[in-house]
């Protein structure tokens, strides 16, 4: 399904479209001037992990407060899948870590058991306290 990186699955290898998005993001970052694209970075090492254009919602709740739902992310590794009972019911999730410093930034929704929560499948939660804005 995806390339193994030290026991974790690289999110960028899961789908071909993710590779194209990463290349586009890196190209945009390379050509960015002072204004540049609005991106989110790991709060620990400042590695770019997401683009503002991929934010679906800023009104989610994480383990440590407010969290953002992303359609796509870059430069992260996935932990093992596990079932967790979250505020919205039972989900299969995998922790998402920065690929550079291994800081856990949030999780990926692998499966939602309740029909009303299926829209989350394949999407990512980043805790606001674990990411920072760049070029805003």
Attribute tags:
11 strands, 48% strand, 3-stranded antiparallel beta sheet, 12% helix, 1 helix, mainly beta, disordered N terminus, 136 residues
Q: What does this entry look like structurally?
A:
The chain has 136 residues and is mainly β. 12% of the residues lie in helices and 48% in strands. The chain has one helix and eleven strands; from the N terminus they run ββαβββββββββ. It has one helix at 16-31, and strands at 4-5, 8-10, 39-42, 48-51, 55-62, 65-70, 76-86, 89-98, 104-112, 124-127, 131-134. The termini are far apart.
Q: Could you tell me the strand content as a percent range?
A: over 45%
Helix content: 10-25%
The unreliable regions are 1-14
Mean pLDDT over all positions? 85
Which structural class should the secondary elements be placed in?
Answer: mainly beta
**Tell me about the biggest sheet?**
8 strands, antiparallel
Task: Set out the fold topology.
Elements: E1 4-5, E2 8-10, H1 16-31, E3 39-42, E4 48-51, E5 55-62, E6 65-70, E7 76-86, E8 89-98, E9 104-112, E10 124-127, E11 131-134
Antiparallel strand pairs: 1-2, 2-7, 3-4, 3-11, 5-6, 6-10, 7-8, 8-9, 9-10
Concise description?
This protein has about 140 residues and is mainly beta. It has one helix at about 15-30, and strands at about 5, 10, 40, 50, 55-60, 65-70, 75-85, 90-100, 105-110, 125, 130-135.
């Amino acid at each position: 399904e995806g390339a193994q990186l030290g026991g974790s699955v690289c999110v960028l290898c899961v789908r071909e479209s993710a590779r194209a998005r990463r290349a586009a993001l890196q190209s945009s970052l390379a050509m960015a001037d002072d204004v540049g694209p609005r991106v989110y970075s790991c709060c620990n090492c400042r590695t770019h992990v997401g683009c503002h254009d991929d934010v679906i919602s800023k009104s989610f709740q994480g383990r440590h407060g407010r969290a953002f739902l992303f359609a796509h992310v870059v430069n992260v590794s996935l932990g093992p899948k596990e079932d967790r009972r979250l505020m919205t019911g039972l989900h299969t999730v995998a922790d998402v870590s920065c690929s550079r410093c291994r800081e856990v930034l949030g999780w990926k929704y692998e499966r939602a058991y309740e029909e009303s929560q299926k829209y989350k499948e394949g999407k990512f939660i980043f805790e606001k306290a674990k990411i920072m804005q760049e070029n805003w």
